[in-house]
Amino acid sequence: MASGGFFAIGFRSIQIIQVRLRKPDYKPPFRKAKKIPREDAGYRVTDGNIAAIDFGTTSVSLAYTTKGDKKVSTLILDHEDKSTRVPNAFLLKKEDDGKMKVEDFGSIARKKFTSMKPGDHHTHVYFERIKMLMRREKVVDRDTVVESFSGEKFYLVEVIAFILQHLKDLLMDHFSRTAWPLKTTDFDWVITVPAIWDARGKRMMREAAYLAGLLTEYGGISRFTPVSHLSLPLPDEYNPDRLSLALEPESAALYSQEVVADQIESDPDTAIIQRPSDYMVIDAGGGTIDITAHIEVDGSIVVENIPTGNAWGGTQVNEAFSKILEGIVNDPGFEKFLASGDQSQTNADIIKIFYTEFETGKLLFGKEQTKEICISFPNRFAKFYNKALEAGVKRKSGIDYEDDVLYISKEVVESELFGPALKGMIECTLQAIEDNDTDLSTFYLVGGFGGCSYVHKKVKAAIEESFHGQGRSCHVIVPPTPQLAVATGAVMWRKNPEKIKARRSDATYGIGISIPFEDDKHDEYYKFYNEEQKEYKCSDIFDVFLEKGELIEADQVITTSLTPLRQSDEQATIGIYSTPNLGVQYIKDKDGESTVTKIGQIVIDIPNPDNLPREKRLIDVTMDFSGTEIQAKAKYHITGEEVKTVCDFLSAQ
Ligand SMILES: Nc1ncnc2c1ncn2[C@@H]1O[C@H](COP(=O)(O)OP(=O)(O)OP(=O)(O)O)[C@@H](O)[C@H]1O
Ligand SMILES: [Mg+2]
Fold it and tell me: Which domain of life is it from (predicted)?
């Protein structure tokens, strides 16, 4: 389908490489792998039972559909308030035999933890918002450790596994009561991940799903591995093709487009837009702003932009409040208070203030149901800081304190609490619009933060202003139930993943190789003499599979052929690297520092019983970037067999 640097979708043609991403000093790679048609199917064909977990920073939801059912449902996770999206908060209980059990989750878990008797703390483990640890810029691996609110340390991947397992159990419990009892293995599972995450974060979610037993009929994780200097083993990979990772903004985009199209269809006369072919989706959640732009032609979609976003989600509003309060009581990080009693107990008070009291006020303000925010402090906190609070509010205009209640005026809420998060979100959105090559004028705003009326009003005004400046008009729409867009959209995506025809690469990917040295091309620094081959070679060449911004088609894979470095080699280890930059020609600079990040490696056995010459011992390395995860495999020509490939992105490197 691709020719002359363009990709055709229906009657549209889209430029394959965003040439303008290249800086003036851009240097093309010395070697680039070939694109070839894919031979195997990209995704397992599902028989129709699909369950998707949106494991958000602040909240979780689970959407599902069953065979023959056209509609996607969301599971009620909190039976008290019939809520389908609940806080990502978990309370686990230690059993006598060392096993752990999820006692509660969501608001109930938080309520129980914050009002727990001090004597019960040592038998419980509480976690909230652990996804914050997995931001793109943070390096996570299988051995990443997370601290519970009582200060105990656990492996992050196992904590996520407990949470996923609990959600799975709730779905199974739901089906056990229906006339069609379905098992875990009757489902194709989907977990959503921010598009801006790198390969490691995605791999972590996949491994957590294996540990959770999402893909088997046996139970999953039941105890934590004690944290030690030993690495966690690679989990067994049962039915890997029954799990796929969906990109959050992409799922939200599919949902928004379908739901809004249904609305337009049901009442075309009053609709303000027609079904758009080009649209941008801004998913503003608790921890991330995730932006994507789609082009839809005849039901097929090309994801037009490189995944973009930042960490200016709704939690930043809580963070901003924390900074103000720390200033008022003159105690950075509330360290004095936290040290004043049992860690679980003081932490529980802090959670109550920020995630219950302040959060309630913030939501009301966001819905424009109140003009100021008031927060009642827990008794212990008010008593501890009593004098400091009274003195502190005198120094800060727009904030009052009376009878254990803090009152924050509208001006402070707007400028100091919501202001910075909105600024971060708007700047990122306007940049994404500027970077976009198409003429889109429809914006869908989703996620809990994006969907609230105050944020919608502000973001809409900012986008409109930028459009009006260019004499253009636009529509910024919040679809119904914007907080469920990701989970529901993920099920829609899994029904037909082939709908996405192409995506743009978020980084440059490749492997490190040595090639014959060419005086006019290569730098002397990398020159070395290979005794066995009797020739000069150039080391550390970045053999590029895919450049940042390049369009990857769903029906293509990328491949290159290598030969062993030495004739005696019986195993080859090929490192896979990525960089957010373009024009990187070597994997090391002249100081020996890496110019790229290692994201994985392929280990291939290459026996040579007949002692064939080195040039005949070809190894094909094939990588598939078209899906939501990077897959790598290797084939050894001599045996003709596909050699087992370990592509392990999570081991500490
Ligand atoms: N009415 C409202 N006013 C203001 N903020 C709101 C409102 N409703 C939800 N939020 C905020 O939205 C965020 C939660 O949104 P959402 O559930 O989409 O996030 P998430 O999916 O958990 O996070 P992420 O996608 O970043 O991992 C929270 O920070 C919450 O305070
Ligand atoms: Mg989200």
Answer: Eukaryota
For residue 134, the CA-to-ligand 1 centroid distance in Å is 17
Q: Which residues line ligand 1 (CB under 6 A)?
A: 56-59, 131, 285-288, 313-315, 359, 362-363, 366-367, 447-449, 452, 483
| Averaged pLDDT, 534-538 | 95
The CA 107 to ligand 2 mean position distance, Å, reads 18
Q: What is the 3-state secondary structure (H, E, C) of 387-453?
A: HHHHHHHHHCCCEEEECCEEEECHHHHHHHHHHHHHHHHHHHHHHHHHHCCCCCCEEEEECHHHHCH
Q: Mutate which of 53, 54, 55, 57 to test ligand 1's pocket (most atoms within 8 Å of Cβ)?
A: 57
Among protein residues, the one whose CA lies closest to atom 25 of ligand 1:
285
Tell me which residue of 300, 308, 335 sits closest to 248, measured CA to CA: 308
- Based on the fold, state whether residues 197 and 270 are members of the same structural domain: no
Residue 209 sits in the same domain as residue 273: no
What pLDDT, on a 0 to 100 scale, did the predictor assign at position 49?
96
Of the pLDDT bands very low, low, confident and very high (cuts 50, 70, 90), residue 364 is very high
My answer on whether 56 and 203 are in the same domain is yes
301 in the same domain as 233: no
pLDDT for res 179 = 79
246 CA to middle of ligand 2, Å? 12
Q: Say which ligand is closest to the CA of 490.
A: 2
| Domain interval for residue 37 | 16-43+505-643
Q: Classify strands 59-65 and 50-55 as parallel, antiparallel or unpaired.
A: antiparallel
pLDDT score recorded for residue 653: 42
pLDDT of 134 higher than 90: no
Report the candidate in 490, 488, 494 with the shortest Cα–Cα distance to residue 43.
Answer: 494
36 with 60, same domain?
no
